[in-house]
Amino acid sequence: MRKTDTLHDNREIIAELKLKDSHFASIFEEHTQLDQKINYLEKDLVKHASREEEIEKMKRHKLHLKDEIYKIIDKNKEDSPI
């Protein structure tokens, strides 16, 4: 995978993996939910200030999930016939 590939660039393979790989589907859904929750909390300045440490922990976990998602995408691309 190129360094500039995004999840959007890989939407076809992501759709395929979500159907055939339950682990991938689970971590992708968790990543999506964390993204939404982080965005919500960051927009609410009162909640953001009081939950800054929790938000940072969520961001680290989201990044870990994203790394795992890309590893699975890369492996699937390698295993796919050219």
Give the DSSP E fraction (strand runs of 2 or more residues). under 5%
Helical content (DSSP H or I, runs of 4+): over 70%
H/E element string? HHHH
Shape estimate: elongated
Mean pLDDT: 89
CA-based gyration radius: 15 Å
Alpha carbon gap, first and last residue:
14 Å
Structural class: mainly alpha
Number of domains: 1
Descriptive tags:
82 residues; mainly alpha; 80% helix; elongated
Q: Outline of this structure?
A:
The chain has 82 residues and is an all-alpha fold. The chain has four helices and no strands.
Task: Describe this entry's structure for a reader.
- The protein has one domain (11-72).
- Helices cover 80% and strands 0% of the residues.
- It has helices at 11-20, 22-43, 45-50, 52-79.
- Helix 1 (11-20) packs across helix 2 and helix 2 runs antiparallel to helix 4.
- It starts with 10 loop residues before the first helix and ends with a helix.
Please describe the topology of this protein.
Layout: H1 11-20, H2 22-43, H3 45-50, H4 52-79
